[in-house]
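Subject: Re: docking follow-up (thiamine diphosphate)

Dear J.,

Thanks for your patience while I sorted out the input files. As discussed at Tuesday's group meeting, I've set up the holo structure prediction with thiamine diphosphate included as the bound ligand rather than trying to dock it afterwards. The sequence and the ligand SMILES I used are pasted below, so you can double-check that they match what you have on your end before we go further.
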Amino acid sequence: MDLVQILRDSGVRFAAGVPDSTLREFCWVIAEHPEIDHVTAACEGGALALTLGHWIATGRPGCAYMQNSGLPNALNPIMALAGPDAYDIPFIMIIGWRAAPGIADEPQHRGIGREIVRLLELADIDTLAVEADGSAQVRSFLSGESSTRRRKALLVSPSLTTGGSRRAPARDEADDMDKNTVLQILVDAAGPSEVFVTGIGHTGREMLALRLARGEDPFRDLAAVGGMGFAPQIAAGIAMSDPSRRVFCLDGDGSFLMHAGNHALVSGRKDLKLTHIVLDNGCHASVGGHPTIGPVDFAALGSGLGYPIVRKAKNPSALHDALAAIANTDGAGLIHVPVRTDVPGGLPRPDRSLPAGLAAFRRVAGYDG
Ligand SMILES: Cc1ncc(C[n+]2csc(CCOP(=O)(O)OP(=O)(O)O)c2C)c(N)n1
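The structure tokens for the complex came back this morning:
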């Protein structure tokens, strides 16, 4: 089904969103559509609010697209700005439905996958689960023939995903390090008791592969697999509560930007032994390689947010220098590391449930006694 063309035919001329693997091809096509103005958003609430501005200026509902994990990020503007008790503004949402009923999916997606229809109903949004042969149904839903509410959501499950081809990287990455080289350097540089927290996406699984290849405990690191953008706050919470060791946070550029204001918590905190690494591949590599919002000068942003020390490391020796400089400075440090976009195939997954993995991490770190 050509969902983008159906949106266009329904009058949509503006779209904003955060990419999702379920919507992989949709995200590429809508970004390239000649008649639809497209913006990548830093977070889902931002995407939704962009569509509100579009409606205010044009009277046309815009389209906000996202993975269902991002719906809670958008519920604030949905209910407190666009809802019938607030400004009562129409919009159309396209939502990638991870863990749709009957589809096996990762545990972090299950809660929202199960409850999304109820969440949308509570938010006064009319919902249609899109069927593979449901073009006519979608057209009638969007035109208002079969749905009278002003706010509408189409739920798209992975079985409808088509295409999925990666596009060329948004920037020349020939001189960038590959992520595995960076991870090796970080693990070599860290002391035996130092702690790693990895953000969402493939980095956690790449660390797992590295630990297994090195014969090390695969549960030494905490993979913050849900909650995109929150790994740095988990890491900072550990660092605030356990000043005896350094905490490394391995973040993606998309994740760093999603809730960037939170990083200012490092400002003025001389006690924080936190090394925040932004692995910047310029894209959302884990969901299909769609470009992240920007370009952004992460080093300038880091300084502005109050990191006492900020470095950009484009090669192994610069990364070694940056790690040493941060280790010798009070307070948190940020390292911006441009990395290549490729994602290795066949990455392992943890062989335990999330609570069991967390328990193992706390045991290895000595936090459970
Ligand atoms: C709140 C939320 N929005 C979107 C997603 C879908 N998602 C999973 S990984 C990812 C990309 C993360 O990009 P980045 O942090 O740059 O890391 P990379 O994938 O490039 O390593 C996205 C958008 C999600 N899981 N949760």
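A couple of observations from a first look. Residues 18-20, 67, 69-70, 73, 199-203, 228, 252-255, 281, 283-287, 292 surround thiamine diphosphate (CB under 6 Å). The first strand starts at residue 14 and ends at 17.

Let me know if you'd like me to rerun anything.

Best regards,
T.
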